[in-house]
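R.M. (postdoc): so does anyone remember the format we settled on? I'll just put the structure tokens first.
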């Protein structure tokens, strides 16, 4: 644990702190509303104004604080006062200063902290206004600004306390104290008659200075506030102080012309010549309240659609479940929105989102809360219901209404949506779990083809956990060099000579042994590691090909399969060229293999990158040709050098004239487009002969060899030299 250092001005700082008369048993009640606002504004269970003493800390005000260690050495706020900005600790477990702090590892369970120093007029840090949570949190720049604004409120109230104490010690006359002050100040007696006020107070209420003499202070507020004000004064007369009394931080003030405004009110009193004198500090806070209301709106509303945002949705779900209220959460996603947004433009995309939001609200009406929680993701909270049949009907009604044609900027657009839902308490008892389960149901609805609804079932959670664990295993495999490359030879059918090899990924699993791509490739392709593993494969295959060519292999090419994720990286073409240069491999010795799925998912990105590489001499092969829908058009658009005939046609060509005809047609097309061909999956001599007879130049398959480790490949094809097998 890192103890907070002592600031160089510690003696002066402590002297400044004593001027406020605060201690553990003497807090400042006027600060209570500040910490309560902070707790509500940020959705935090704990908020406090924490003053930093010599060797301990104490709360001038707090909300939600239990028994905690008040030693200065463990205080987060003692660190915060050393900074000129908001100190944010998103997760104390990950911060070397605090990970072993007693407040973190003890019953207090402090995980998140944000605090801003509170400075005296002379610039000494007295303490900090902080918000705290037992869970890790994010805290935006906007949140920091809002916390600083609340800190200004706290400093104002501390300063009023200091003024009050200084007045008690050496009470000045009104002339000395407030006559020319810009702060509106009113003195009145026990009967609430104004005995003095300054120009600022008179102007605030629309009077001249002279009109205040003998006026009741009640006249400065509307009649509805009189009873509360009179009761406060009566209790202060009995107690001789306002300490301990609940003074509203906002009431309404009344001007001479009858107009009302939001009034900030601070009250003090003292004995003078046997009489109790009251001091009221007044402030027009209408603008500040409007600003706070706007900040609250921004903090809870999606700016584009005006629906609730994610934070607002979560808080409302949490509130309902804490109360034990049944509730259902529906998660919705617009199918294919990215393509619409990219094709029609962002303005149309925004209009689509706004119309979907309007339709959501029109279906649910006042029965629930609609929220936009992501780019094209929406959510609906339905309180007071956990009837899955009724929720299913509501979900279907929503996606049916969304799917009716939209007319936007002369575009007639049909939008479909997928929906997943979960109910409480059947599927979850906590807010995060309920929302997460609804999201898993949405994922399943999308996986089943979209434009449908799906209710959460328990196996979805188990599948998600399994995917997560498998993802962790893949990360370990990458970092611990468990991935290896095998090489399947590509053979010239005319003389059975070696034309090249295809690099194929394998996983040497420490428990399950050598795994083929079918066991892990789908999870790898859909996860975050695909691009990184693809780059590793590219470098490894280039290095191996260059090594074999240095040991005498001629007219040889290395085939490398690309992942779609590699096209989303910063610059695939430059990465390929860098790999070739790093290993001294000629561009024509590398052939990149793509599938139709990759092309369709990243059309423009793929075309641009492949064109650059083809211009450099790198080969581009179209894998699994003939199995998709767009194959013919791709031949025309893309800079291909080779077609790979899919194994399904090769394996059926002897028994099926149709398959043989398809292969012959592909060969004719390749010849017309001046493309090379290679047939995959050749397993018999009869297949090889038939392919050669109809003009196929090359092939690969188990007839020639299964995929081999580099050392076996080199031995079989008599590649001499000190080979290294890379892992």
């Amino acid at each position: 644990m890192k103890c907070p250092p002592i600031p160089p001005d510690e003696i002066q700082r402590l002297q400044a702190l004593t001027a406020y008369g605060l201690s553990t048993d003497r807090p400042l009640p006027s600060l209570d509303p500040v910490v309560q606002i902070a707790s509500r504004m940020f959705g935090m269970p704990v908020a406090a104004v924490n003053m930093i003493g010599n060797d301990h800390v104490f709360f001038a005000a707090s909300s939600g604080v239990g028994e905690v260690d008040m030693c200065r050495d463990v205080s987060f706020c003692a660190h915060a006062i050393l900074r000129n900005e908001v100190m944010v600790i998103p997760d104390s477990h990950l911060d070397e200063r605090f990970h072993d702090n007693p407040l973190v590892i003890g019953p207090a369970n402090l995980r998140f902290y944000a605090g801003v120093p509170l400075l005296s007029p002379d610039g000494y840090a007295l303490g900090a206004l902080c918000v705290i949570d037992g869970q890790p949190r994010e805290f935006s720049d906007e949140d920091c600004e809002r916390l600083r604004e609340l800190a200004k409120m706290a400093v104002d109230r501390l300063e009023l306390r200091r003024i009050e104490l200084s007045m008690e010690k050496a009470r000045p006359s009104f002339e000395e104290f407030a006559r020319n002050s810009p702060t509106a100040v009113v003195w009145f007696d026990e009967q609430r008659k104004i005995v003095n006020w300054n120009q600022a107070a008179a102007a605030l209420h629309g009077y001249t200075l002279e009109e205040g003499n003998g006026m009741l202070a009640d006249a400065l507020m509307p009649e509805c506030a009189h009873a509360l004000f009179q009761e406060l004064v009566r209790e202060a007369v009995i107690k001789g102080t306002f300490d301990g009394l609940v003074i509203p931080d906002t009431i309404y003030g009344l001007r001479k012309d009858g107009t009302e405004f939001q009034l900030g009110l601070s009250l003090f009193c003292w004995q003078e010549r046997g009489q109790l004198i009251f001091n009221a500090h007044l402030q027009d806070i209408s603008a500040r309240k409007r600003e706070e209301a706007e900040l609250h709106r921004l903090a809870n509303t999606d700016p584009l659609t005006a629906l609730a945002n994610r934070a607002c949705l979560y808080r409302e779900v949490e509130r309902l479940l804490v109360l034990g209220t049944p509730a259902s959460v529906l998660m919705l996603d617009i199918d294919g929105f990215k393509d619409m947004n990219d094709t029609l433009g962002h303005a149309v995309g925004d209009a689509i989102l706004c119309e979907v939001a309007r339709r959501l609200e029109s279906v649910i009406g006042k029965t629930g809360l609609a929220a936009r929680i992501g780019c094209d993701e929406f959510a609906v909270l339905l309180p007071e219901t956990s009837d899955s049949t009724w929720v299913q009907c509501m979900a279907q009604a929503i996606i049916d209404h969304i799917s009716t044609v939209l007319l936007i900027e002369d575009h007639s657009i049909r939008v479909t949506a997928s929906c997943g839902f979960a109910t409480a308490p059947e599927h979850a008892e906590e807010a995060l779990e309920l929302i997460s389960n609804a999201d898993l149901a949405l994922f399943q609805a999308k996986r089943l083809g979209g434009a449908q609804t799906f209710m959460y079932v328990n196996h979805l959670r188990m599948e998600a956990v399994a995917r997560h664990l498998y993802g962790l295993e893949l990360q370990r495999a990458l970092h611990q060099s468990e991935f290896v490359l095998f090489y399947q030879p590509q053979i010239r059918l005319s003389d059975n000579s070696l034309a090249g090899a295809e690099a194929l990924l394998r996983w040497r699993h420490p428990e399950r042994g050598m795994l083929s791509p079918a066991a892990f490739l789908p999870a790898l392709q859909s996860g975050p590691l695909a691009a990184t593993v693809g780059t590793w494969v590219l470098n490894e295959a280039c290095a191996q090909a260059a090594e074999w060519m240095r040991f005498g292999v001629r007219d040889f090419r290395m085939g490398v399969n690309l992942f779609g994720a590699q096209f989303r990286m910063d610059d695939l073409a430059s990465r390929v060229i860098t790999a070739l240069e790093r290993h001294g491999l000629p561009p024509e010795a590398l052939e990149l293999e793509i599938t139709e799925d990759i092309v369709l998912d990243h059309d423009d990105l793929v075309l641009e990158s492949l064109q650059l590489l083809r211009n450099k001499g790198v080969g581009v092969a179209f894998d699994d040709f003939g199995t998709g829908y767009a194959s013919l058009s791709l031949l025309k658009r893309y800079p291909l050098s080779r077609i790979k005939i899919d194994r399904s046609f090769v394996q059926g060509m002897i028994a099926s004239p149709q398959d043989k005809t398809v292969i012959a047609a592909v060969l004719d097309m390749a010849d017309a487009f001046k493309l090379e061909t290679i047939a995959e999956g050749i397993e018999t001599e009869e297949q090889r002969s038939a392919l050669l007879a109809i003009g196929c130049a090359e092939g690969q398959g188990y007839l020639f060899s299964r995929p081999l480790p580099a050392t076996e490949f080199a031995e079989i094809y008599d590649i001499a030299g000190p080979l290294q097998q890379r892992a």
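R.M.: ...and that's the designed sequence above, right after the tokens. Also worth knowing: The chain has a mean pLDDT of 90. The chain has four domains: 10-169, 176-289, 302-456, 470-716.
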